[in-house]
Queue: 2 jobs
Job 1
Amino acid sequence: MYEKPKLAFELDALEPHLDKENLDIHYNKHHTAYVTKFNAAVEGTEYADKELGELLKDIDGIEGDVKIAIVNNGGGAWNHSFFWSVLAPASESGEPSEGLSSAIDSAFGSFEDFKKQFSEAAVTVFGSGWAWLVKDSEGKLEIMKTSNQDSPLSVGKTPLLCLDVWEHAYYLKYRNLRPDFIEAFFNVINWGMVSENFSA
Ligand code: MN3
C-alpha cells in the first residue's frame, strides 16, 4: 500500500510562482488518483508490499497489465511525491551545496548553463512528461526528459530534481505559457533537498 506523503509546506506557500488552486488540484486530485489506481492494481499481487521505487527500478522483470499499471500509476505516484519533495517556498529555496554546485559546473559549464539546458528540456517535452536532473551510477549529472509517467529509475538513473510539465501542473495560472511556468519553478526549488539527493 503506497501512501501519499504530506506536503512539507502549505498549499499557498509557493505563491506567486506556483499558485494555490493549481497545487491543490494537482496534489489532492491528480496525485491521489495515481496513488489510488496504483494501490488497486497491485492489491493482492506479489507487488503489493514491495517498495514502489524498487518496483520501478526492476520494471523489466515485471510483465503484463500490472506492469503497465506500475509504470503509469506507480510512476505517477512516485514522480509526484518526489516533485513535492524538491519544492520549497521561495524564501527557503537556498542554493546548491558546494559539492552539487561543482558537479553542475563540470557537467554543464555553469549554473546558468544548467538552468538553460534544463529549461530547454522542459520546454521541449512533447505532450505530457517530466524534465529531470539525474545522476548515473558513477555520479555524473545529466538532464533527461521522460514521457507520461516514465521514471528515470527504470533506466538506472537516480533523480535529483524534477519538473512536471503535464498541462495539469500549470494550466490554471500559466495557460499555454509553459516557459513562464518553468522560469517560475526556479524560484521554488528546494536546493537543500536536491543537494541531499546528490550526496546520498
Ligand atoms: Mn502532475
Job 2
Amino acid sequence: MAISRLDNLYRQVILDHSTKPHHRGTLTESTQTIEMNNPTCGDVIQLEVSLKDGVIADIAFSGDGCSISTASASMMTDAIIGKTVAEAVALGATFSELVQGKAVENEEALGDAAMLQGVSKYPARIKCATLAWKALAQAIDESGDGHGLAHQFHKE
Ligand code: ZN
C-alpha cells in the first residue's frame, strides 16, 4: 500500500473514533474517577474505571477535547477493557513510546491506537494523544493495584 493511501486510512480511522467515540459516557459502577486536562490544548477528560480483581472490567470517558484526544481516548478504551492492570500499564508505556516516534515491538497489541503513531511528527499534539492514557495511569495509581507500575506512563 502506498504511503499516502496508508495515511488516508489512518486519518479515516482516527476521524471515525473522534466523531463516534467508543465507550463514551459514564459507568453505573466505577471504582475510580479521574479528571485530567491538557492545558496546552484545552482538552479535558473524565475517566471512569471499574477495576475488579486486578482486571480493567469496564471503562468510560467523557469531557471535552480535540479530535486527537477524543480519538485516543476511544482507542484506549477499546485496547484496555478486559486487560489486567499490568497489561494496561505495559500498553500505556508502548503507546507513549510510539507517539514519541520510538520503535516499539508490539504495537499491534494497541489495536487502532497504533494508528496515532503519526502524532510523533506533531510534538504539540503528543499530549493530546497521551491524556487518556495518563488518566488511566492515575486511576491505576489511586486504586493501589498498580504496585508502582504506573510510573512508566510519566517517563515522557
Ligand atoms: Zn488536544
